[in-house]
Amino acid sequence: MRIDLLCSGSKGNSCLIRHEDTQLLIDCGSTKKYLMESFKKVGACVDDTNGVLISHAHSDHVSQLKHFKHLDVYSYCDLKDALDKHDVVPNQKLIIKDLSIQFLGLSHDSPHTIGFVVESDKEKLVYVTDTGYVPNQIKPYIANADHYIFESNHDVDRLMHTKRPMFLKQRILSDNGHLNNEDSSLNLTSLINAKTKNIVLAHLSEEANTQDLALDTFSNVLLRKDLHPSGIDVRAAKQFEVLTID
């Protein structure tokens, strides 16, 4: 399985997954220019996409859907730009060619937000962003994966010292907001196992987080839990930089 996180953050989110003859796209935020250039950069063709999986309807996840609307789109939320939309629900499992997709119910301030577990015959990817907390009912599905793309949106202290209005800070901190670094790390360290190879901390706030803060928090949680996993590549995604897992 090859995974290209094309962009990640409040200005756009998109992830391309390829395995054998199957190509899936998770979300299509950002700009048309950036996404099309990213497809070329990773050697992919838009029209080879077998399914577009949409996590929710916020613009940073769907702003370029009109350029993918001729493809099969799978979504739990309402969408206006999809011509061939397939409705899915949490806990549903779907097979698209060589890959299976498990849809996960998340908690965000956009109706019907979902995450994804994508599996080949040998590998398992967990893709969870845009959730205020990790619901207990999805934890059995997301444990023991090979690869995690997992929200680590903000540092709480840094967020509180931004100039954002209090109502926005409260929204981000709420159960319908975004995972902070500490909660993200606590969840991840309870989910990984010996087969886990890659962790990407995703959807980092440019104002209320840094890559170093997210990575340091993860390392500190490992130390507090006296965990010493070996062979795991832990990275933090940038807003506009392709990050590849293969």
TrEMBL record:
| Ranges where the Metallo-beta-lactamase domain occurs | 11-171
Domain of life, source organism: Bacteria
Q: Where is the signal peptide?
A: none
User: Mind telling me which Pfam families this protein's record contains?
Assistant: Lactamase_B_2
Looking up InterPro entries in the UniProt record yields: Metallo-B-lactamas, RibonucZ/Hydroxyglut_hydro, WalJ/YycJ-like
- This chain belongs to which protein, by name? MBL fold metallo-hydrolase
